[in-house]
Amino acid sequence: METIIHRASSRGHANHGWLDARHTFSFASYMNRERMHFGALRVLNDDTVQGGMGFGMHPHDNMEIVTIPLKGALEHKDTTGRSGVIRAGDVQIMSAGKGLYHSEFNHYKDQAGNLLQIWVFPKERDIDPRYDQKTFDKTARINTWQTVVAPDNKDALWINQDAWFHLTDLEKGKAISYTKQKPDSVLYLFVIEGSVKLADEILERRDGAGITGGDGITLTAELDAELLLMEIPGILDHRP
């Protein structure tokens, strides 16, 4: 097993006033040629959006876009005709496919919201755009993996890729293991809150780790920890 660590402090940073964004991988004005993507994982943004502000209508195509609100709520509209509000505890996925426009705004006028937005290269290009969201029971992820995105799990949101996203709230001192679905997959771990030990590395809040090789991983919580684990293809079949 080989691991590459992306410390929270090493991420790209852009503060636009209404938007304070941290980029694990190259995005917009942040360019790092050593961080263009990790396997099929293209973008991992940690965005804080001020009250009432947001992203106006803008285009996407041929990308799987997963949004995980961590604080507050986000209003969504797109050209598939879908609109709604996603809140902390929800997960949203949008297959941009052959192309669509969408907008996202902080639902609240008087408080900032925080979200993760994740882009994954698709398995099949130019599919019809699609959108879905779901509320997950956070109590069902205590010290266990809760699958929130998958190509083959009716309880999760469907993704146009051989990719699985899992969340857990791991209590201090508890250990948890994960075995890969596919032997040629890679794993990316993101510490939303708390601290965990991965092999000989201690990962703190907002640190990330890309893992290649091996059958899976075992983690131990140094502090109560909220974790996102993504299994994605290690080789891109469809490059941008």
Could you walk me through the main structural features you see in this protein, from its secondary elements to its overall organization?
The protein has strands spanning 2-6, 12-15, 19-23, 41-49, 54-60, 64-71, 73-78, 83-87, 90-95, 100-106, 113-120, 130-135, 146-150, 157-158, 164-170, 175-179, 185-198, 201-203, 208-212, 216-233. By secondary structure, it is mostly beta strands. A hairpin with a 2-residue loop joins strand 17 and strand 18.
Keywords:
240 residues, mainly beta, Jelly Rolls, seven-stranded antiparallel beta sheet, 20 strands, 0% helix
| Total of DSSP H or I helical runs spanning 4+ residues | 0
CATH-assigned homologous superfamily: Jelly Rolls
Order of helices and strands: EEEEEEEEEEEEEEEEEEEE
For the record, give the distance between the C-alpha atoms at the N and C termini, rounded to a whole number.
28 Å
How much of the residues is beta strand, in percent?
over 45%
CATH class: Mainly Beta
Largest sheet entry: 9 strands, mixed
Structural class: mainly beta
Assembly status: single chain
Q: Say what the CATH topology is.
A: Jelly Rolls
Q: What's the shape?
A: globular
Domain module count: 1
Rg over CA atoms, rounded to whole Å, is: 17 Å
Rounded average pLDDT: 95
Please estimate the helix content. Answer: under 10%
Q: List unreliable stretches of 5+ residues.
A: none
The CATH architecture assignment turns out to be: Sandwich
* Tally of DSSP β-strands: 20
